[in-house]
């Protein structure tokens, strides 16, 4: 049997504005079932919420520049802190992961759309109401028990704000479950005929792991919130010690979701980085299967470590040992990924453009967050720094380093595909420099602050911590300023950027085979799996009947040596 | 050289081609059933969370259920038998359609299932109105009402699915031995609700 192998499409393909079957701008405000429209809807919505959540962070940092609560009232500070956490997690980073999944999965596996397009649109359209519930709560009676909403605090700190928070999270959680279901079924059942699981891009693997976590974890959070809701409104006492209940049960149920949620937030961006690095280093990814399996390992381990958030909640010693050990083991698959990425860069032909800069920034920041994660996994250290700024620094490195830098990297990498135009490289580099300096200046001083004992979640602190806090605040302002070149770049380039062509990066994954932006049903003609997603360095144009790939590889390695 | 023909055994890096992955994305009759199954996995995790909370309270509180909240077994027992048998009744209807194109049979047996489900719900409402305790009496009472109530919500939804199937089956040709996703999905959901009830009954009434 023979197989037609074609050369990869060149980058001088039809100009985007001549491509037929494109969406109108009004489609982005409708119940559109096209996965690409939904992907963009997710992305833009999540960025809008991030600006709201970011503004809240700036107010908090301004407040924390001085030891006294003189900028905002402590009660309002609590509300800001609660909403900042909730918005950034549930309305920025999780939907942003879903944005890439929606946009890329069908393109990467050569499908026309997701498995259930209408369900997909339903999942997106639950996000704006869910977010509005949170924002509206500011006008009435915002929740102020923190994003964890631990009872009994959440039972006494404002009933309606708390109830709105619960309704919002239930809505967003349902959206997340429906999305995860769609990703799982699509990846599993809709790959193009020639694509087996080991030839699909690593982004699909990481979304597979993410979808499993969403499907297993999120419903348990829903169960916890249903019970909390009964406690708030119906006079039950599931979590209220006054009536015989136990707040620790809430903590177990909450963290059974919310620890895996950390991986729901960063796994998609592990996938993004696995796509970005090989393309811009022109090298095959190092250890494809190891990186693929480590996603699944992270997902599995992520489900059995939740009680490490509860070392100081009266958890018995033997149980703490179990959760300490399992938590530390997560460093192994994560380390495999990081070594895989570094080995991919090693000896590569690295192009330091914006996606690559963010990718390298991602690795370094996530590394710091991961290492402090191993530190707080150990019980004695955790008891020392529990609920201090060390924890705040740690998870911001994980989520900013692992989530948001990965997100920016992906945004720049796929911007030409999504818009059909190139972004401005200079503005992109300015954006990277400001972001990278900003976040390190913000979150690095938090570690010594926490070690010295500064509490998180309070507007008032000991004046001896002021110097480091001022550094954090300056860093926060720089991070805020960094958004400007980003927004200017994106908006300007969508309209005025240079046409990008099909494949400006000369990447090998399937989505670059179609026009930019892709036509409504993705591929004009049946896509061809002409190479694996990461076969860089193998000159397929040289392939002919007389030369097998093995010979070619041998020849290539002889040249290298 | 725009394209070249090469032997498959030496295609680029031998990206292997499974025999069973040979079906394209157009032909996946089982796609939607797979989706329903995945959805039910997520659903069962909600129940698992609630059951886990119940078991923790059970382990934590020495007298659980406390005095005054013991449950009668007769009515829920009969109810359980009705609900479990309704699964077999429903399967009969589905297999009549699937193996013999018997839409009439489907309607009769599904109608009977709906009736049995309604009796189950009626029995539950009757039980609720005759119990000597309320939602907030104590922790066991709260667990009882939330667990059975949440399950009752699922029975109601299953009932709506069956009624939707019955309503749609009146259109000739809507369901046939080839085309029966709605029928099968409703059935799978109903079995799921049944299985959850068996576990719930064991935990709340018998344990």
TrEMBL record, chain A:
Residue ranges of every copy of the Cytochrome oxidase subunit I profile domain listed in the record: 25-530
GO cellular component, one term: plasma membrane
GO biological process, one term: respiratory electron transport chain
Cellular compartment(s): Cell membrane; Membrane
Reaction(s) the record says it catalyses: 4 Fe(II)-[cytochrome c] + O2 + 8 H(+)(in) = 4 Fe(III)-[cytochrome c] + 2 H2O + 4 H(+)(out)
Signal peptide annotation: none
Pathway field: Energy metabolism; oxidative phosphorylation
UniProt region (Disordered), positions on chain: 1-20
Record's keyword terms, sorted: Cell membrane, Copper, Electron transport, Heme, Iron, Membrane, Metal-binding, Respiratory chain, Translocase, Transmembrane, Transmembrane helix, Transport
UniProt-recorded Gene Ontology molecular function terms: cytochrome-c oxidase activity; heme binding; metal ion binding
Transmembrane segments: 37-57, 87-109, 121-140, 164-190, 202-234, 254-278, 290-309, 321-344, 356-377, 397-415, 427-447, 467-492
Keyword Electron transport set for record: yes
Topology of this chain in the membrane: Multi-pass membrane protein
EC number, as in UniProt: 7.1.1.9
Biased composition (Polar residues): 1-13
Pfam families: COX1
Function: Cytochrome c oxidase is the component of the respiratory chain that catalyzes the reduction of oxygen to water. Subunits 1-3 form the functional core of the enzyme complex. CO I is the catalytic subunit of the enzyme. Electrons originating in cytochrome c are transferred via the copper A center of subunit 2 and heme A of subunit 1 to the bimetallic center formed by heme A3 and copper B.
Family assignment from sequence similarity: Belongs to the heme-copper respiratory oxidase family.
Record's protein name: Cytochrome c oxidase subunit 1
Source organism of this protein record: Lusitaniella coriacea LEGE 07157
Species lineage: Bacteria, Bacillati, Cyanobacteriota, Cyanophyceae, Spirulinales
Gene name tied to this protein: ctaD
UniProtKB/TrEMBL annotation, chain B:
Keywords recorded for this protein, A-Z: Cell membrane, Membrane, Transmembrane, Transmembrane helix
Segments traversing the membrane: 34-61, 73-91, 103-124, 144-167, 188-206
GO biological process, one term: aerobic electron transport chain
CDD domains linked: Heme_Cu_Oxidase_III_like
Domain of life: Bacteria
Topology with respect to the bilayer: Multi-pass membrane protein
Chief localisation class: membrane
GO cellular component: plasma membrane
Domain Heme-copper oxidase subunit III family profile, first and last residues per copy: 34-207
Locations listed in the record: Cell membrane
PANTHER family for this protein: CYTOCHROME BO(3) UBIQUINOL OXIDASE SUBUNIT 3, CYTOCHROME C OXIDASE SUBUNIT III
Family (UniProt): Belongs to the cytochrome c oxidase subunit 3 family.
The name this protein goes by in its record: Oxidase aa(3) subunit 3
Organism listed in the record: Lusitaniella coriacea LEGE 07157
């Amino acid at each position: 049997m023979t197989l037609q192998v074609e050369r990869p499409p060149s980058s001088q393909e039809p100009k985007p504005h001549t491509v037929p079957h494109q969406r109108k701008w009004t489609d982005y405000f409708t119940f559109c079932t096209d996965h690409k429209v939904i992907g963009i809807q997710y992305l833009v919505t999540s960025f809008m919420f991030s600006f709201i959540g970011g503004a809240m962070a700036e107010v908090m940092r301004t407040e924390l520049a001085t030891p006294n609560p003189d900028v905002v009232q402590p009660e309002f500070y609590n509300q800001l802190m609660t909403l900042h956490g909730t918005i950034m997690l549930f309305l920025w980073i999780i939907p942003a992961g879903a944005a890439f999944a929606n946009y890329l999965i069908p393109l990467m596996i050569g499908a026309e759309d997701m498995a259930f397009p209408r369900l997909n649109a339903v999942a997106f359209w639950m996000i704006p109401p869910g977010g509005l519930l949170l924002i509206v709560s500011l006008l009435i009676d915002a929740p102020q028990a923190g994003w964890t909403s631990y009872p009994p605090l959440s039972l006494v700190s404002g009933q309606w704000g708390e109830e709105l928070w619960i309704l919002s999270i239930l809505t967003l959680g349902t959206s997340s479950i429906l999305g995860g279901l769609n990703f799982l079924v699509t990846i599993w059942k809709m790959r193009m005929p020639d694509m087996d699981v080991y030839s699909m891009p690593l982004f699909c693997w990481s979304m597979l792991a993410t979808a499993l976590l969403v499907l297993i974890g999120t419903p348990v959070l829903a169960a916890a919130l249903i019970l909390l809701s009964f406690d708030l409104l119906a006079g039950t006492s599931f979590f209220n010690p006054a009536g015989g209940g136990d707040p620790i049960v809430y903590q177990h149920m909450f963290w059974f979701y919310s620890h895996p949620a950390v991986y729901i937030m960063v796994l998609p961006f592990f996938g993004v980085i696995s796509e970005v690095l090989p393309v811009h280093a022109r090298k095959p990814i190092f250890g494809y299967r190891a990186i693929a399996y480590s996603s699944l390992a992270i997902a599995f381990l992520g489900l059995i470590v939740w009680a490490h958030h509860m070392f100081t909640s009266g958890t018995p010693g033997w149980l703490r040992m179990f959760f300490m050990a399992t938590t530390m083991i997560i460093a192994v698959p994560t380390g495999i990924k990081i070594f895989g990425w570094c080995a991919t860069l090693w000896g590569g032909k690295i192009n330091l453009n914006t996606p690559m800069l963010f990718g390298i920034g991602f690795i370094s920041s996530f590394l710091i967050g991961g290492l402090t994660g191993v530190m707080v996994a150990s019980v004695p250290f955790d008891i020392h720094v529990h609920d201090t700024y060390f924890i705040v620094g740690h998870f911001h490195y994980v989520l900013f380093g692992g989530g948001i830098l990965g997100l920016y990297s992906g945004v720049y990498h796929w911007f030409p595909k999504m818009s059909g135009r190139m972004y401005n490289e200079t503005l992109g580099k300015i954006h990277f420099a400001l972001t990278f300096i900003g976040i390190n200046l913000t979150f690095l001083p938090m570690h010594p602050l926490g070690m010295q004992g500064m509490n998180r979640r309070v507007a008032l602190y000991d004046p001896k911590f002021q110097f480091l806090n001022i550094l954090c605040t300056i860093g926060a302002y720089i991070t805020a300023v960094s958004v400007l070149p980003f927004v200017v770049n994106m908006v300007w380039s969508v309209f005025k950027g240079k046409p990008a062509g099909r494949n400006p990066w000369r990447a090998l994954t399937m989505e670059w085979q179609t026009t930019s932006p892709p036509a409504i049903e993705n591929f004009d003609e049946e896509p061809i799996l002409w190479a694996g997603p990461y076969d860089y360095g193998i000159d397929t144009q040289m392939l002919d009947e007389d030369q097998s790939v093995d010979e070619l590889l041998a020849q290539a390695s002889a040249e290298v040596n | 050289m725009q394209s070249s023909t090469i032997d498959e055994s030496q295609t680029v890096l031998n990206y292997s081609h499974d025999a069973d992955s040979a079906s394209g994305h157009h032909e996946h009759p089982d796609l939607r059933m797979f989706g329903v199954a995945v959805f039910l996995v997520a659903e069962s995790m909600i129940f698992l969370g609630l059951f886990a909370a119940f078991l923790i309270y059970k382990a934590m509180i020495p007298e659980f259920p406390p005095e005054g909240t013991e449950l009668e077994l007769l009515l829920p027992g009969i109810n359980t038998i009705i609900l479990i048998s309704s699964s077999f009744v429903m399967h009969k209807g589905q297999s009549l359609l699937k193996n013999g194109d018997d839409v009439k049979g489907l309607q009769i047996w599904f109608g009977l299932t709906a009736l049995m489900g309604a009796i189950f719900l009626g029995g539950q409402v009757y039980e609720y109105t005759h119990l000597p305790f309320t939602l907030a009496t104590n922790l066991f009472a709260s667990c009882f009402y939330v667990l059975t109530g949440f399950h009752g919500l699922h029975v109601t939804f299953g009932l709506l699915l069956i009624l939707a199937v019955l309503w749609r089956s009146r259109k000739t040709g809507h369901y046939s031995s080839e085309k029966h996703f709605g029928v099968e999905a409703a059935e799978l959901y109903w079995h799921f609700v049944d299985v959850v009830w068996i576990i719930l009954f064991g935990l709340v009434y018998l344990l």
